[in-house]
Design goal:
alpha/beta; TIM Barrel; eight-stranded parallel β-sheet; 8 strands
Amino acid sequence: MEKANLIDIHAHLEHARFKQDLDKAIERARKAGLKIIIESGVNPTTNRLALELAEKYDIVKVSFGLYPIDALAKEMETSESSGFPRDTEAFDLDKELKWIEQNKDKCVAIGEIGLDYNWVTGKEKEQKEIFEKILKVAEKLNKPVIIHSRKAEQDAIDILEKHKKLKIIMHCFSGRKSLIKRGIDLGYSFSIPPIITRLQHFQTLVDLVPIEQLLTETDAPYLSPVAGERNEPANVLVTIKEIAKIKNLDEKKVAEIIFNNAKKIFNF
């Protein structure tokens, strides 16, 4: 593919799996055509690390996140969730929301935020209350939101539907077809990871969603196109190729449309 402007709207470059070679991963991203990588925080520590990365790398921008399980950790009075693949961080939600408001000009979005019924059960009510509180802050700041909705897709959309002023991006959305169609009708965007090459669900999602509502992400280091390998921003190219094949469009045209979609949402 002739080099086009690419964007990764959701990555976790602060992750320990990038500790040894982040400079090289960023360089590979540049060579692939990445113009913007949005580094997503999940708690106070990673929100601040995201700012450090944005200061170091000119292609990195920041999304301040409050991952649903981290946001619950204080209420659960534990930093452990059964089987959860990383340590969670208990924090004061109100204090962090105030910090986000104070640093609003340093971020392009709020996320990832949302609901997760996969790792924690029995706390649905508390998760929804926290989610609502964060969404109200995002509205106040006039920032788009990047939504995590694992095994909670219907509840997430039910809540989001009340927040009509927000620009909404469904990150790695795994809901059924009827929920995808509902999201389309509500004007939401859907960000597609490189694991699309291995998961029929994302191929179906791309087929259903108009290209004007698609974005590319990696969720690096997760969701690699190759099982067992670390994912990284350069793999946006993999997603572009797959979308082009499904939509029967030229790859460069797909990249151009998706980059323009992102510009409209994030006001680049």
